[in-house]
Automatic annotation (TrEMBL), chain A:
Keywords: 4Fe-4S, Iron, Iron-sulfur, Lyase, Metal-binding, S-adenosyl-L-methionine. The keyword Lyase applies. Belongs to the PhnJ family. GO terms for molecular function: 4 iron, 4 sulfur cluster binding; alpha-D-ribose 1-methylphosphonate 5-phosphate C-P-lyase activity; metal ion binding. Catalyzes the breakage of the C-P bond in alpha-D-ribose 1-methylphosphonate 5-phosphate (PRPn) forming alpha-D-ribose. Coiled coil: none annotated. This is Alpha-D-ribose 1-methylphosphonate 5-phosphate C-P lyase. One of its GO terms (biological process) is organic phosphonate catabolic process. It catalyses: alpha-D-ribose 1-methylphosphonate 5-phosphate + AH2 + S-adenosyl-L-methionine = alpha-D-ribose 1,2-cyclic phosphate 5-phosphate + methane + 5'-deoxyadenosine + L-methionine + A + H(+). Its EC number is 4.7.1.1. Signal peptide: none annotated.
Automatic annotation (TrEMBL), chain B:
This is Alpha-D-ribose 1-methylphosphonate 5-triphosphate synthase subunit PhnH. Pfam families: PhnH. InterPro entries: PhnH-like_sp, Phosphonate_metab_PhnH. It comes from the Bacteria. NCBIfam families: PhnH_redo.
UniProtKB/TrEMBL annotation, chain C:
It comes from the Bacteria. It holds the Pfam family PhnI. This is Alpha-D-ribose 1-methylphosphonate 5-triphosphate synthase subunit PhnI. Residues 353-382 are annotated as: Disordered.
Amino acid sequence: MSDYNFAYLDEQTKRMIRRAILKGLAIPGYQVPFASREMPMPYGWGTGGVQVSAAVLTPEDRFKVIDQGADDTTNAVSIRRFFEKTAGVAVTEATTEASVIQTRHRIPEAPLREDQILVYQVPIPEPLRFLEPSEVETRKMHSLEEYGLMHVKLYEDISQHGAIATAYAYPVKVEGRYVMDPSPIPKFDNPKLEMAGIQLFGAGREQRIYAVPPYTHVVSLDFDDYPFEPTKADHACDLCGATDSYLDELIMDDAGGRMFMCSDTDYCGTRCAAGHCGAQGTPLAEDAA
Amino acid sequence: MQAHALEGGFTNAPIDAARAFRGLMTAMARPGTICDVSGATAPAPLSVAAGTAILTLCDPDTPIYLGAACDTQDVRDWITFQTGAPFAPADKAMFAVGGWDDLPLAKFAIGTAEYPDRSATLIVEMPELSSHGATLSGPGIKDTASLSLPDCAAFQANAMLFPLGLDFIFTCADRLAALPRTTRVR
Amino acid sequence: MYVAVKGGERAIDHAHAWLAEERRGDRDVAELGVDQIREQMTLAVNRVMAEGSLYDPDLAALAIKQSRGDLIEAIFLIRAYRTTLPRFGGSNPVDTAAMACDRRVSATFKDAPGGQVLGPTFDYTHRLLDFKLAADGEVAEMPQTEPNAGETPHIMGFLDREDLIQSEPAGAEKPDDLTRSPLELPASRALRLQALTRGDEGFILGMAYSTQRGYARNHAFVAELRIGAVAVEMDIPELGFAIDIGEITLTECETVNQFTGSKTEPPQFTRGYGLVFGMAERKAISMALVDRALRWKELGEDNLGAPAQDEEFVLYHADNIQATGFLEHIKLPHYVDFQSELELIRKLRREAQAGSQAGEQAEGKGPSGGSLTGKMKEGVAS
């Protein structure tokens, strides 16, 4: 590890990122521009989250990385290894044991505590981007708090489909001011955005950092007569039997047979270890492997 | 330049700065929470916490304003040697360090409508820092918090500017707390 | 009973091992040396240096070897290495008038002081595969001659003296650095040129070509294209003067473009500029055309809505490392997002089917009337 500075980035870069994080916390939901650096992993693969984690980690931390809720997805493995190697931090797969959690596309099922930090990898930080491609224009809209375009988009969804047709990266309004992209988490996770932990969002390629401090008001956009609904597959987890967790759907055979299991692998494993068992799970006593 | 400009810096910069930043970040994310920070020993009258905050956040890209009581040759030499940060008048400063009465609040940058982050962060040296005083609420605070603030009206006026405004770090010995523009003060 | 798929760590290790084996190829064939790549694949090395923004032929050659010849991957390796390098200072601007030119051509004057020097160009080769190279790459000795003595003056200088071309006074301010501060729009010309010179050659070429075909046509003449070595000097404050810290090869292209003018301003030609590390004239000419197209506002031209005039479009999409990373990330797992879309589409289809079965009495399904923004629930803090 002596080949690298602690947590890979040089100190001047970390200072620049740290200043951006502090301003992000002071202006919840506002996207702070920062001079993102080329990292030894590709843009779009979590370079924003990695830079934020590098600026936040201390040697005392215990680091967890999830992708799609799972600790053993290849990109999560790759990022966890990167920090084991460059920062020498301890790592864990247990949500409750982690002090810093870097995530792609999920918020863990277990509620985060005040002493925990959640770092999101963000591909497109601008919630208005797919409605207005120009950065100059969207920046102006945020400055004027002019979010009519978003309202019209949601309204058109309802006119066409009878429901808001956004299932993930569902836009939220933070502390009554900035409309924010919560990163491509399923809308099931949106209610968890109001939490006790510190949430930091890093978009490397797009050069933006933003933040949601603990206990900040985060409201998913909706209409009085079409209220926001967090949804998940209408099943219980086939491994642990949980009915309150977000589920992955697996195709099991050529006939299209399906099974459902928790996307949060730690949540599922913890439940199984505690003796819970779903329809296709392995009862605890039978198998210790 | 005095020899002691060379002293009092971080002994292990990457690690000291990482730990100090966690304190600063916790303070900014949880207004009213008092955090211990250490690692730097700046020349008097700067506190350990103020010196540590400066080494953690400042470099040649961040002009600093020094309040009158802090504006000594020793302090200037130390900041220059340790960080390379240039000194600037209040309206050009990204950071300021000084006692409450030494900081001309109205002159600091509060950001622009399109870039509210381009606002100054003021490090306010305090004679004491405790969880007794004004009542705070807003982002980062579960219900309410309390903090010994040097003023009330100034912070109320600052919060009215949101999303523009100044952000404050209060330092005393080796402890600090913070007050971002979002905090409502009673 | 189902056992969850595990083994991300092992899969990664095995993939890396396989990759290393594929890179090496058939072990009966001699291993390729980095020095061979540096000396015999120079244009690839040049492109990696230009788009990697790091002038180091040895490292660029190593990156090409490591990336199995995938130049964008090699550029990525160089960029990632570059960000870890400490920065000791900035050089003085290089003086391309003092360039030792290997090649120097003008399309606007038949001859000019310094002459037309073809140099090592593919331009007039017949593109016929040379099967002799497959057997034996040795080349005959090249006839030698004395290099031109003295400086080769810029062709633009002759137009400048007659006031026929817009003047381009030297800027006093130190330009921003694209790699050190976030891109902000509108960008200064210095920042635009930085983005273009490290931008993807194919993208810049396509943009330039589109201007030639009529999307914001600006009628470019290559006033001068020069390739050669220039000295890099740096001020050393302790010494009080600049010292020579090395030499780099550059390609510079200056274009003369259609003139502007008005009743009050006499007509003048306008300029486009390209400057690229190494021998990279396709890139340098492309850069000059795109630079010129992006200058429409300062030259008082109309916005024709052409892609090459759109600063935001060009600057945000020119970087192949950003582009390739984001493009390729869609092969990463997205099953959480996809699952939420699956649920949504199933729900919408269920409701649609239920609706059509229920009959046709319902009309105009949508949020009930009233002011839209007024009805939108706002997350206002109490």
